[in-house]
């Protein structure tokens, strides 16, 4: 079983070990005990109970199966809700300017903003909150009941018991009252009292279900006219047998899904058919119409009310939840009408025939404010603008406007210098002019480039003179020199064709005249000329 490191055993020792294990499994021998004195289950397989060789385990144990890497710093405790620490008598440096607590700043304060903060009044200094931080393990992070106080459920039990006692007391009083009425009445009055008793019997509590009405649903009967026989629980069938089953309305495979186990079809099997001709439109229609929608709204109201601190539960006290929901709707309608009346009283009703007040029409009031030539207030008081607790009008990097005061080409920027880089330094009007000049220059360059691409390139045919120079139109060639150049070019070509006539020492003359160049052109073979084979 949970053995130590494997050691050599003889055949006899091995046989005794197997017999001992079989006896332990059968309960004839006591179980093996580990280091801590705890019994080891003899049915644990050997590959789980045997420790690895590198642990050097001398005694049987199951410690190697436990998590060795468990951090002792992990905790399963939870936050102390609403706990307060030290409460100071005067304001401390670094505390919240609004309430005076040291555990947060003014921006993170959850109290109502005071007209004059605790920093200046030194009155009603709020106590410091207890700030805790926990390092939860894997189970602690996923424990949905972590931090739950079980003692809070005693209130639910107490309320339920109180309601049950009140209900029993009320029923007992009603029974005694009916008995007294029966004893006091005589003759025809007895007949009338019996009819009233029957009416009272019909008006039972809606939360209870009549047991006689449930008998048809829960009774068990034998199958009749079947080969299988046996018994089954019968359920009242609310569908007429002549109607077509809902899973046969549309035999398309891709139509609404029918679940045979629950006999439900949520979607409409015939969504394109005429609504007047359909008797079944899917089970979802029942959830979105009639009392189902009202019941859904009632559930949502109960959940929201419970989250806000009210002691309400839809399943435990449905009558109370419904009564509160009705009162909530009445109060909501009343508040809505009051708000509507206040708005109409303040701003008027454009649909009515009453004239619009002069104050709203011209934006005038009886408040008098006197200004001097420079625009300063001499008499009266200016309208106070509401201030935010966040920083406003903070200018950085020499900017005179805030970031986001300018918008262009789907980018925010500064209005003072029209830059779209947030950490840029303000350059003022000079930067705006330079940016506009560079933009104009870029547009001009792009326009010039587009115009150059549109114009086709013109290739001019050039006549080349000596050494690739252009041939002037007024060139004059000497006929004698031209004849000599032609003879010389013919002799040169013959030497090229017959290598035996080439001399060893070749004299080169780089002085080429216009006649020599013209002779070269005249003697040159033109590959595109159809008469080139008849030139020589």
UniProtKB/TrEMBL annotation:
<protein>
    <recommendedName>
        <fullName>Pre-mRNA-splicing factor SLU7</fullName>
    </recommendedName>
</protein>
<comment type="similarity">
    <text>Belongs to the SLU7 family.</text>
</comment>
<keyword id="KW-0539">Nucleus</keyword>
<keyword id="KW-0747">Spliceosome</keyword>
<dbReference type="InterPro" id="IPR021715">
    <property type="entry name" value="Slu7_dom"/>
</dbReference>
<keyword id="KW-0507">mRNA processing</keyword>
<dbReference type="GO" id="GO:0000398">
    <property type="term" value="P:mRNA splicing, via spliceosome"/>
</dbReference>
<dbReference type="GO" id="GO:0005681">
    <property type="term" value="C:spliceosomal complex"/>
</dbReference>
<dbReference type="Pfam" id="PF11708">
    <property type="entry name" value="Slu7"/>
</dbReference>
<comment type="subunit">
    <text>Associated with the spliceosome.</text>
</comment>
<dbReference type="GO" id="GO:0030628">
    <property type="term" value="F:pre-mRNA 3'-splice site binding"/>
</dbReference>
<feature type="region of interest" description="Disordered">
    <location>
        <begin position="22"/>
        <end position="42"/>
    </location>
</feature>
<feature type="domain" description="Pre-mRNA-splicing factor SLU7">
    <location>
        <begin position="136"/>
        <end position="405"/>
    </location>
</feature>
<keyword id="KW-0508">mRNA splicing</keyword>
<feature type="compositionally biased region" description="Acidic residues">
    <location>
        <begin position="182"/>
        <end position="200"/>
    </location>
</feature>
<dbReference type="InterPro" id="IPR039974">
    <property type="entry name" value="Splicing_factor_SLU7"/>
</dbReference>
<feature type="region of interest" description="Disordered">
    <location>
        <begin position="178"/>
        <end position="201"/>
    </location>
</feature>
<comment type="function">
    <text>Involved in pre-mRNA splicing.</text>
</comment>
